[in-house]
Amino acid sequence: MTISLYAASVPVFKQMLNALSGVLNKAEAHAAAKNIDPSVFLQARLAPDMFPLVRQVQIAVDFTKGVSGRLAEIELPKYDDSEVTFADLQALISKVLAFVDGITPAQIDGKEGIEIITRQGTPKEKRFTGQAYLLTYGLPQFFFHVTTAYAILRHNGVEIGKRDYMGAF
């Protein structure tokens, strides 16, 4: 039995972004309950050379829309990455969930062999087939940033666990 490219992408992105939204809700509530300035969490990072929470969420969202849209061969929405609050991040997640909700299996399935080029025209240019782009680049990048966002909040005392990370499945 084979698995479709759509089944391996859009539902996975949706599950994890919804879970990330829940984790952010818990972080915001934790900050309020403990009288912690929310920016402490939003600007927290695991190491000095890593991106802060805000940027981790933005990148996870970028991979969701980028991978899904490129596989569907549709124009990607552009966002300016100006989020500075939990509400801003929730709005960003909602926008990208609405975008991927508009993508159908018929738009993605069968695109395993299409060529996807990242960072075209730069020294970092990479060429992938649709399947390789999803499985060896898009999903690993997405999970890295979702996991890092979770780890930043967990490290900073937000009471979240594996069920929060996984979300509803």
Quickly list its features.
169 residues; 5% strand; single chain; 2 strands; Four Helix Bundle (Hemerythrin (Met), subunit A)
Q: Can you walk me through this structure?
A:
The protein is mainly alpha-helical and 169 residues long. It has a single domain (6-166), classed as Up-down Bundle (Four Helix Bundle (Hemerythrin (Met), subunit A)), CATH 1.20.120.450. The chain is 59% helix and 5% strand. It has seven helices and two strands. It has helices at 10-33, 38-42, 53-72, 86-101, 105-108, 130-155, 162-166, and strands at residues 115-118, 126-129. A two-stranded antiparallel sheet has the order 1-2. Helix 1 runs antiparallel to helix 3. The longest helix is centred in the last third of the chain and has 26 residues, at 130-155. It is globular. The mean pLDDT is 97. InterPro entries: DinB/YfiT-like (IPR034660), DUF1993 (IPR018531). It comes from Pseudomonas helleri.
Layout of SSEs?
Elements lengths: L9 H24 L4 H5 L10 H20 L13 H16 L3 H4 L6 E4 L7 E4 H26 L6 H5 L3
Antiparallel strand pairs: 1-2
Organism: Pseudomonas helleri
InterPro entries: DinB/YfiT-like, DUF1993
Protein name: DUF1993 family protein
